[in-house]
């Protein structure tokens, strides 16, 4: 039990740190903070925000309480909304502006739609939000 909480806390803090560093890079135009790996496409702001939300959700798993349930629900709703709208932009071929709502892309991006989260990332964040929604209902070990 202790090891699971420690690993959730460590992973949550690392995700929050990663997302914060990338958002800092976007706000202050520091390309080295956006490109996690050299010569790779930079992480978009929506992905950084989603990583921060997932990190906070991982930290909130370790805390029980009625106010924590409301916090989890709000964070999950935000994560689900961001990932669903981003995925719908790809599926429907439209631009709803969620990718560049707060931060305009300023890097040279080979992506045909600069600043938009990749479809596999949106799908992964959507699956994570579904897992976090279902997490309180899974109490039995089957394996």
Cα-atom radius of gyration: 16 Å
Helix percent reads: 55-70%
In sequence order, what are the helices and strands, one letter per element?
HHHHH
Biggest pleated sheet: none
Question: What's the count of strands?
Answer: 0
Strand content: under 5%
Distinctive features:
143 residues, mainly alpha, 63% helix, globular
At a glance:
This protein has helices at residues 2-27, 31-34, 45-61, 66-92, 119-134. The chain is an all-alpha fold.
Helix and strand topology:
Blueprint: H1 2-27, H2 31-34, H3 45-61, H4 66-92, H5 119-134
Helix pairs in contact: 1-3, 3-4, 3-5, 4-5
Can you describe this structure?
- This protein is an all-alpha fold.
- It is built from five helices and no strands.
- Helix 1 runs antiparallel to helix 3 and helix 3 packs parallel to helix 5.
- The chain is globular and about 45 Å long.
- It starts with a helix and ends in a 9-residue tail after the last helix.
- The mean pLDDT is about 80.
């Amino acid at each position: 039990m202790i090891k699971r909480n420690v690993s959730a806390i460590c992973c949550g803090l690392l995700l929050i740190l990663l997302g914060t560093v990338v958002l800092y890079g976007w706000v202050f135009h520091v390309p080295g903070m956006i490109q996690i790996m050299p010569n790779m496409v930079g992480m978009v702001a929506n992905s950084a925000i989603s990583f921060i939300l997932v990190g906070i959700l991982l930290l909130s798993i370790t805390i029980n309480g009625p106010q924590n349930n409301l916090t989890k629900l709000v964070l999950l709703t935000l994560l689900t909304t961001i990932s669903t709208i981003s995925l719908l932009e790809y599926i429907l071929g439209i631009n709803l502006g969620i990718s560049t709502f707060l931060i305009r892309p300023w890097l040279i991006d080979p992506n045909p739609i600069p600043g938009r989260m990749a479809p596999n990332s949106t799908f992964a964040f959507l699956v994570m939000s579904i897992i976090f929604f279902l997490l309180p209902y899974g109490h039995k070990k089957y394996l």
